[in-house]
Amino acid sequence: MDQILRINMGAENGPAIRIEPTGNYAGLGGRAMTSAVVSKEVPPLCHPLGEDNKLVIAPGLLSGSAAAMSGRLSVGCKSPLTGGIKEANSGGQGAQVLARLGYAAIILEGKPKDDTLYKVFINKDGVKITPDNSLKMLGNYALVDKIKGEYGDKVACISIGPAGEMKMASATVAVTDMEQRPTRHAGRGGVGAVMGSKQIKVIVLDDSEMPMRSAKDVEKFKEANKNFVQGLRKHPVTGEGLPAYGTNVLTNVINEAGGYPTYNFKQGQFAGAAKISGEALAELEKARGGSATHGCHKGCVIRCSGTFVDKDGNFLTKQPEYETVWAHGGNCGIDDLNAIAMMDLLDDDYGIDTIEMGATIAVAMEAGLAKFGDFEAAINLIKEVGKGTHLGRILGNGAGLTGKVFGIERVPVVKNQSMPAYDPRAVQGMGVTYATSTMGADHTAGYAVTANVLGVGGNVNALKPEGQIELSRNLQIATAAIDASGMCLFIAFAILDQPDTFQSLVDILSAFTGQNLTGNDVVALGKSILTNERDFNARAGFTSKDDRLPEYFKKESLAPHNVIFQVKDEELDQVFNW
Amino acid sequence: MDQILRINMGAENGPAIRIEPTGNYAGLGGRAMTSAVVSKEVPPLCHPLGEDNKLVIAPGLLSGSAAAMSGRLSVGCKSPLTGGIKEANSGGQGAQVLARLGYAAIILEGKPKDDTLYKVFINKDGVKITPDNSLKMLGNYALVDKIKGEYGDKVACISIGPAGEMKMASATVAVTDMEQRPTRHAGRGGVGAVMGSKQIKVIVLDDSEMPMRSAKDVEKFKEANKNFVQGLRKHPVTGEGLPAYGTNVLTNVINEAGGYPTYNFKQGQFAGAAKISGEALAELEKARGGSATHGCHKGCVIRCSGTFVDKDGNFLTKQPEYETVWAHGGNCGIDDLNAIAMMDLLDDDYGIDTIEMGATIAVAMEAGLAKFGDFEAAINLIKEVGKGTHLGRILGNGAGLTGKVFGIERVPVVKNQSMPAYDPRAVQGMGVTYATSTMGADHTAGYAVTANVLGVGGNVNALKPEGQIELSRNLQIATAAIDASGMCLFIAFAILDQPDTFQSLVDILSAFTGQNLTGNDVVALGKSILTNERDFNARAGFTSKDDRLPEYFKKESLAPHNVIFQVKDEELDQVFNW
Question: From B388, which residue of chain A is nearest by alpha-carbon distance?
Fold first, then answer.
């Protein structure tokens, strides 16, 4: 992983490939890599869809090695949704395969002069880029089928659906899973639109004959990895809850906590929650012959995913994640798992962020385009996006834009990115993360649900402002570091609660890189990433005024706890004052 | 003019009227009033369509008096288009009548709990507010007809069309002219959407039995006004060009200067310019029995407007202004005056900013929704806005949003507001104003075309960066003061060139207010207004990064002069460093 592949799509005689040493970026992985490159190379005031923006695709530092859980792929750019820096990461096979091919990053640059669509193929022999207009407007599923026919069933794909080609601000970059299905997505912030602006439909990765990446200290690495896996297995969240019910185990938990945003963030509990809970989903999957326990990439030991099959037992989609179930479920007043699974499939196929899409549908419902609870109407709205009708183009550009188009005031976005599945009034630590994250409203950026609701990594009263700043700050720092490692964020549960497991992670990193790292180094890495990102955003014109929730969260109280967001602006401004 | 009328649309038992002394706002008029109130009373981070925004309607300091040209009405709020402070002003009868009724401002506050639409009637006896859902979705013309039927043909109307009711970010506030036609508009920044969010369709003003406002020193006032009028009459622009051909006299001038934005700012000259020039327009109007010389309000001595009649001699619309002719003409590749007049009528009737609409159509044309030059398609696009279709809602929210929806990079906006009819590369002083104005891209905020192209108030080479900062700064200061006085901005030509005429204006103000003012007081007034506005914008999150043109103006060179915008960022940051 000592090379960077640059593809200049705007070169005079068509796309130009340049492979160069990692140079100043050596030793960086995942989000550390994408944010360093974007911060250093992308002019902060450039148009996100223009030739000066770059799409950076980077496996984590540990990706491609035998380290458990190291399969996250980071995708970074200036975001068409937020206008700030963006890193979205995904599971699936992409990171492992790309890392084994030796690339620490693929950087897509420039912009083609005409509207030709391209595909990229990378294997042990090098890189090939080919025009292929036959791929135009294919859904991710049909695309991957076509690619399989051409390149076989061992390759991994990094692709965009029609939403990316239409440069919609909620477009994702899809990554194929172990079954070569485009079910994993770098979802947030419109990274797929930037790939679309570069006119690359798919990057096909074939790591045949490429070795697993090996650690500098093989024995120490093995030992540390073993301890790490044991730590994950013994923690109740990663050892029991997530494998049994997937991320959707949270539906009942967050709903009971009164923080489940319902009817476009109107109330904190949904009457239909039990019907779409992880428990109900697992039961349905098992009854139909699907599976409730499945990994999204090789080397996963948590296996929080699953397989959702239809009534006839045929694969429909992967097990919808908690955020997806919420976005299309409770937030839209929908309590039908079959409908939610169908929407998950459509989102994956078109290449749309499920969180942004669900939040947008709820705003559209508030605007009167459909009734809350009407799942057929909701499905049709998503189909509009896939078709690229005028309405579809509105919706595909996210909740913020949809709110503007229809003159709606209650739009739950920060930095124009939709809030995920935790109401910031009832989970105030999440509110701090939503407000201050460099990414816009993003639960993964500092998952305060841990100490606010789950009692993981301590306890901080979710309904009060006290302690939330420190909680969010520490989580944001730790998360940035984890996002650089290639590790799945779900390791956080165990490393927050179990000092041994955290030490094992540090040991894995030390053994792999041949350095002698400490916990402090991990913290320093996290801080340096956030600093790069904050710096980019400041140069793009962001100020403390962008680190705020919409005003109505401070005015409208949320049932059942009847709380408003109480963390003061001056406190929010202290999150990065470490 | 010693009272402020506040209407709280969100009061518990329906709209509540409060009339109070001007208090701290005493002595302020027009933009000085609107920007003081917005800056002091509106929370900068509030939603522009929410209950915390306020719509401030203020006649100028001299409005309602016998001072020539004093008929401008200012409308201010937090803008739904830019997110910053907004003042848009309009000609027509509104300012004179409102001032004579004794109101220094109408402030619309709060937000109704249901969707009832209201009308407001103000006369010598007071203020009456009445629900009237029969007015819903009426065009401005049908609305004014209905109001005439009810209140007679002496009243003035301040109203919104369907675009305002639909809360579109390009919606205007219309003001009736001397013939009681809704032809004058506070056009920019979506002030009509804010009036729509307050659910007031029309404010009907009847100044029967109200006296003209009189000066403190009647004789000095009369004398100064006489000299002022003479000054206007002897200047070639205000004495000849504008009366003969209207504002559209500029088409040939700007086109010859190579600064006429054509095909969505792709080139600086339009082959069809002569066909849509002021000269051609005046000829057509006269040939059909319209008029090329007409005032928009009583007391106008320039009379730059006119009457556009159709082939059968029936009134179609007022003489389209230069910016309108350009926006729907050259910028869209359209060279047909009848089509342009039809679009002007539709814009006025729906209540849409003609500049924003034309710029948006050109962006839509770049997105492939219509061909450049296809005026039938352009007319249909505007009709979509009036109908409020999904496409219409996209377009009605302006060029910036339309560019986002269709993934278009070349969108000529600053602070999300469309640039008017001067390419900032070929008229670099206008570029400085576009970039730095508190209002977003706005030609009226500091009309550097004067010294850049017209040789008025000096000469500064339009194609070079040198001298543009100082030029724009001085004009922005002077303009803010003029916008406070109620004077039409077109007096600027004479006061810039003729020291006597400037002195006459100062004398008018002195005599009217009973103060002993100097030119320095006028400058101080201008600076204080800009300071209020900059302060609001800073608190709303604006930084120097918002004082920039889109990047492509620094990269794409403009024919025929093959120039790029060359004023440096560091220089732009000096505009308000006085």
Answer: A406
CATH assignment of B216-245+424-578, given 1.10.599.10, 3.30.390.10, 1.20.1110.10, 3.60.10.10?
A: 1.10.599.10
CA distance B17 to A578: 51
Q: How close B515 comes to chain A (CA, Å)?
A: 41
CATH of domain A3-205: 3.60.9.10
A contacts of B390 (beta carbons < 8 Å): 389-391, 394, 405
Token code pair at residue A432: 């701090």
Question: How do the domains of chain B map onto residue ranges?
Answer: 3-205, 216-245+424-578, 248-422
Contact between A30 and A59 (Cβ < 8 Å): yes
Res B290: pLDDT: 87
pLDDT tens for B329-344 read: 999 999 999 999 999 9
Class of domain B248-422: mainly alpha
pTM above 0.90, yes or no: yes
A contacts of B50 (beta carbons < 8 Å): 409, 551-552
Residue among B169, B2, B204 nearest B77 (CA): B169
B546–A49 C-beta distance less than 8 A: no
pLDDT mean over A211-216: 96
Closest residue of B to A51, CA-based?
A: B409
Cα→Cα distances B22→B1, B27, B101, Å: 8, 8, 14
Query: Complex ipTM, two decimals?
Result: 0.95
Strand partners, A109: A8
How far is Cα B140 from Cα A416, in angstroms, rounded to an integer?
Answer: 34
- Kindly report, residue by residue over A219-247, the tens digit of the pLDDT: 999 999 999 999 999 999 999 999 999 99
User: Is A394's CB within 8 Å of B394's CB?
Assistant: yes
Class of domain A217-245+424-578 (CATH, top level) = mainly alpha
* % of chain A beyond a pLDDT of 90: 98
**Is CATH 1.20.1070.10 correct for A248-423?**
no
Question: What are B294's strand-pairing partners?
Answer: B304, B305
pLDDT band at B291 (very low <50, low <70, confident <90, very high): confident
Which segments of A410-539 does DSSP mark as H helices, in order?
428-436, 449, 468-485, 491-497, 499-513, 519-539
CA B406 to CA B237: how far, in whole Å?
41
Using a CB-CB distance cutoff of 8 angstroms, which residues of chain A are in contact with residue B546?
541
Q: What span, in angstroms and rounded, lies between the C-alpha atoms of B541 and A296? A: 41
- A407 to chain B: which residues are within 8 Å by CB? 49, 166-168, 193, 196-197
Q: Is the peptide bond before A560 cis (omega within 30 degrees of 0)?
A: yes
B384, closest residue in chain A (CA to CA): A390
Looking at the complex, does the CB of residue A390 fall below 8 Å from at least one CB of chain B? yes
Q: Which residues sit opposite A129 in a β-bridge?
A: A120
Chain A touched by B49 (CB under 8 Å): yes
- The DSSP bridge pattern shows strands B200-205 and B118-123 to be parallel
Cα separation, A274 vs A259, whole angstroms: 15
Torsion angle (degrees, nearest 10) of CA B467, B472, B477, B479:
140
Sheet arrangement for strand A184-186: A126-131, A118-123, A200-205, A156-159, A173-175, A184-186
State yes or no: pLDDT of A169 exceeds 90: yes
What is the spatial order of strands in the sheet that B126-131 belongs to?
B126-131, B118-123, B200-205, B156-159, B173-175, B184-186
Interface test with A, best of B166, B384, B393, B555 (most A CBs within 10 A): B393
**A563 CA to centre of own chain:** 29
What distance in Å separates the CA atoms of residue A524 and residue A481, rounded to the nearest whole number? 8
Q: Say if strands B200-205 and B156-159 run parallel, antiparallel, or are unpaired.
A: antiparallel
Q: Which residues of A307-331 are buried (b: 16+ CB within 10 A; e: fewer)?
A: bbbeeeeeebbbbbbbbbbbbbbbb
